[in-house]
User: Which sequence fits this backbone?
């Protein structure tokens, strides 16, 4: 585990002791590049729940996929889907913005760049996702939809098109509000640039080793290991500092 800015940054131990929630990205964080869940990470999530921390999955996946995953891994916090555009908690679904601008932009990108809609789009409420290849040009995509009120986010797995007001920080803020806690009492773990708003919003931001430098610069903690093994490393570090203390 690498502690960034040791000795001159925030009081990491104090922030760990004040935690009540842990937010975790899914693709590339709980999974590897093959999108298989890390069983080591799932075990760590359950240890965090047993220690009294609410685990909140924050993902670009659609709500049905995200909800099912949260249910089966044992995450009790709100589910944040569609890159912060949708939050589910207590039987209620909250959406951050209309989908129509995203659909218009996705239509342009599909036509001009030859991209295909992602399978999960039939269940999306805010986001429009497009499949991309290894040579995808994000800057060209942004040029094509300039003037439309949308944000483009590339997770490394797909291109996500959302209203310009939507990001993971927005969704996580709503999730925390529904739990009645401050985001200063939350940690967040991610692996890609789509996770930057989420990490900036919380008291204890963390990144797995396979994250880009742009995300690591926002983090206070960076794991030595990648993907799900990195998540387990970060959560075990948090739990060891807490020493059995519950929120």
Assistant:
């Amino acid at each position: 585990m690498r502690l960034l800015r040791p000795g001159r940054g925030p009081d990491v131990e104090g922030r760990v002791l004040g935690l009540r929630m842990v937010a975790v990205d899914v693709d590339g964080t709980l999974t590897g590049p093959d999108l298989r869940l890390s069983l080591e990470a799932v075990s760590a999530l359950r240890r965090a729940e047993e220690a009294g921390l609410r685990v909140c999955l924050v993902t670009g996946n659609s709500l049905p996929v995200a909800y099912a995953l949260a249910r089966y891994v044992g995450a009790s916090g709100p589910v944040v889907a569609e890159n912060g555009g949708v939050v589910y908690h207590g039987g209620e679904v909250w959406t951050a913005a209309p989908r129509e601008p995203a659909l218009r932009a996705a239509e342009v990108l599909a036509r001009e760049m030859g991209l295909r809609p992602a399978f999960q789009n039939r269940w999306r409420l805010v986001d429009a996702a497009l499949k991309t290849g290894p040579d995808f040009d994000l800057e060209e995509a942004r040029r094509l939809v300039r003037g439309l009120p949308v944000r483009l986010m590339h997770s490394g797995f797909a291109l996500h098109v959302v209203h310009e007001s939507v990001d993971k920080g927005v969704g996580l803020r709503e999730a925390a509000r529904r739990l009645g806690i401050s985001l200063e009492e939350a940690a967040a773990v991610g692996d890609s640039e789509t996770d930057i708003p989420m990490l900036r919003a919380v008291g204890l931001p963390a990144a797995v080793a396979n994250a880009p430098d742009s995300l690591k610069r926002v983090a206070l903690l960076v794991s030595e290991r990648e993907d799900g093994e990195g998540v387990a490393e970060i959560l075990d570090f948090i739990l060891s500092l807490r020493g059995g203390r519950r929120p």
